[in-house]
Write a structure and sequence with these properties.
- With about 240 residues, this protein is mainly alpha-helical.
- The chain has a domain of about 100 residues.
- It is about 70% helix and about 0% strand.
- It has 13 helices and two strands; from the N terminus they run ααααββααααααααα.
- The protein has a two-stranded antiparallel ribbon.
- β1 and β2 form a beta hairpin.
- α3 crosses α4.
- The protein is elongated.
- The N terminus is likely disordered.
Amino acid sequence: MKFYILNSISRERPVSVVPKWVMAILGIAIMAQLVFHANTTRLNIRETLIPEAPSQAALNVLSLGDEIGISKFIMLWLQGFDHQPGISIPFSRLDYDSLISWLDRVLQLDQDSHYALLSASRIYSEVPDTDKQRKILEFVYEKFLEKPDQRWVWMAHAVYVARHKVKDNQLALRYARQLRIHTTSSVVPNWARQLELFVYEDLGELETAQILLGGLIESGEITDENEINFLLSRLAINEEEPQKN
C-alpha cells in the first residue's frame, strides 16, 4: 500500500487533464510577453529623447518630504538613460533641453548637491557637438552664479572645456572673468581666480594680462611673493617669445 501511494504521487499527470481555459490563458500570456518585449526593444532603439522633467511642485509631492532622496534617484536614472536594453545611446543624441531640465530639478531639490553640476561639466560637456557643449556650459554658468563660492570648481572646469574642447577663448574668457568677480570666499584657491590671466595669454593679449595681474596684486588678492614672481616671469617670458622667433 505504501509503495502504491508513493508511486501515485511520483507519477506525472498528463497535459490533457489541465483545463483548456488555463492553457489558453498561458498561451496568451506567452504571446503577450513576446510581443511586448519586441515592441519595447524597438521603441528603446528608436527613442533617444529624454522626456521633459515634471514641475517642481509635482516632484515635491512625489518625494513625500525626501527631496534629497528623489534627487539622487533622478541622477541615477539619468546616468543609466544612455544604456537601454540592447543598445548604448551616445550622449550627443540626447535631447539636451530635456536633460538640462532634469539637472535643474535635481539642484532645486538639493541645493547642496554637486552630482548634477559634476555630470554637466565633466560628462555631458564631452560630447562632439559644439552647440550642445555650449548649452550645457551655459547651464553650469547660470547655476554657478546662484552659489559662486560653493560651485566655483564646476565653473573652473567650464573654462577648461571652453578653451580646450569648444576652442572658444572668448567664451573661456567670459567664464574666467565671472569666476574671478563673483567668488569671494577664502576657500576658493587663487589659481581659480587667475584663470582669466591664462586665457588672456592664450589670446596673445599679454599687456591686458599684465594690467590685470597688477590690479590683483595692488588689491591684495595675490600676496604670496613666489606666486607673484611666477606669474610675472611667465608673462614676461611669453612676451619675449615672438622676438626670439
